[in-house]
Amino acid sequence: MKARRKRYRNRNKKWGKMLLMTGIAVFIIFILFNFLGRFIPSEEEKKAEDYKKAAEMAGCTWQELVTYDTVRYENNLKNVNPYLSAVDFVKMYYEIYNYVETENGGYWALVSGGTLSDSSSIWSWFGLDSGSDLNAVLKASKKYQKPEFVIRFSPKELNDLIIEKGFSEKQIQWLDRLMTSGSLDEMLGSSYALPDYIESAEQGYFAWPTPALHVITSKFASARKHPVFGITRAHNGVDISGDNAEGSPVVAIDNGVVISVDLNGGERGINIKVQHNIGNDIWISRYQHLSTVQVAEGQSVTKNTTIGTVGNTGVGTGPHLHLELTYNGVLIDPLLLIVDK
Ligand SMILES: [Zn+2]
Fold first, then answer.
1. What is the distance in A from the centroid of ligand 1 to the CA of 54?
2. Are both 158 and 211 inside the same structural domain?
3. How many whole angstroms from 247 Cα to the centroid of ligand 1?
4. Are 299 and 258 in contact (CB under 8 A)?
């Protein structure tokens, strides 16, 4: 009887121990996965890395490559292969030689040569399927590392490429704005398609917010050194200033409703938010560091009407307007959508 009880107790102990060990193991695995997860790059980070690598292989800048795709694919880079786009950026120079035997040795005689300046002629020269990416093209070219061939790749100018591809006037304007907006990091971080009415706006969809001020003093950036705090942080909008900025009018960039007037906005200073409903889209423009406000919460405003004046309230280095813009809740570079006419 005693022995049986003892055996029973021992078995119970053994089960308890196993349960504890399993618990600890599960816990360790859980912590490990959480920890490792931080080092697994996100989809956007992977895409950005691929753009950089593909551009390096093609010899262009990654900004050029991203901009080219952003315009072609209307901001939707999700299913785009950067290495395929990179083929468009290269032209190929080749020479073919033939060995000619002579009595005193022999020599390599040039048989033919030329420049292939578009992707389809490069694919067909190598006998590759159309749609082969730059990895495949470079791999194919390795087979020609023989004395009878010379093959060299060089990058095209973006300007030449857009002519070759027949970019429309609208697309070229879009591309120019992207190349000067400095927001490519941000764009890659949040690839979303902009609606048609934005894409088709020739001169920027929204109105310029400061009719008398035309100097962009700071652009939208995912991270920049803050002029006052000295630390690196995102700049979520665009700063506009100019001569006699203090008291200069600020206008609504589109028809909308004033959803907030904040007279005590901390580092934002006096600021106004206006909501613009366009179809199912919600755009919110926010005007910061104002000196005066000329609208009230709930008030409807029309495009280009004065809503306040430029000031230096909150934290800043001098009177300027800081304009922020969100599209369905996503911060977006205002310079992509407003053009100083
Ligand atoms: Zn600012």
1. 33
2. no
3. 17
4. yes
Q: Which positions ≥6 away from 246 have C-beta within 8 Å?
A: 291, 309, 310, 311, 312, 319
Q: How far is the CA of 31 from the centre of ligand 1 (A)?
A: 40
Span from the CA of 288 to the centroid of ligand 1 (angstroms): 8
CATH number of the domain residue 281 falls in: 2.70.70.10
State how many domains the chain has. Answer: 2
Parent domain of 233: 194-336
Taking each helix axis as running N to C, give the angle between helix 62-72 and helix 169-181, from 0 to 180 degrees, rounded to the nearest 10: 140
What is the Å distance from ligand 1's center to 181 Cα? 14
Report residue 316 as tokens: 């800043």
Give the mean model confidence (pLDDT) for residues 11-33: 79
In the reported structure, the alpha carbon of residue 324 is separated from the centroid of ligand 1 by a whole-number distance in angstroms of 8
Angstrom distance (rounded) from CA 335 to CA 64: 18
Inform me whether the pLDDT recorded for 200 exceeds 90. Answer: no
Q: How far is the CA of 238 from the centre of ligand 1 (A)?
A: 6
Residue 190, pLDDT > 50, answer no
In contact, 54 and 155? CB cutoff 8 Å: no
Compute the average pLDDT of residues 173-178.
Answer: 75
pLDDT digits (tens, 9 = 90+) for 230-259: 444 567 889 999 999 999 999 999 999 998
Q: How far is the CA of 252 from the centre of ligand 1 (A)?
A: 17
Residue 140 CA to ligand 1 center (angstroms) comes to 50
CA of 133 to the centre of ligand 1 (A): 41
pLDDT tens digits, 258-303: 988 999 888 889 999 999 999 878 888 999 999 999 999 999 999 9
Q: How far is the CA of 110 from the centre of ligand 1 (A)?
A: 61
Is the residue at 239 inside a domain? Answer: yes
Residue with the bigger pLDDT between 286 and 17: it is 286
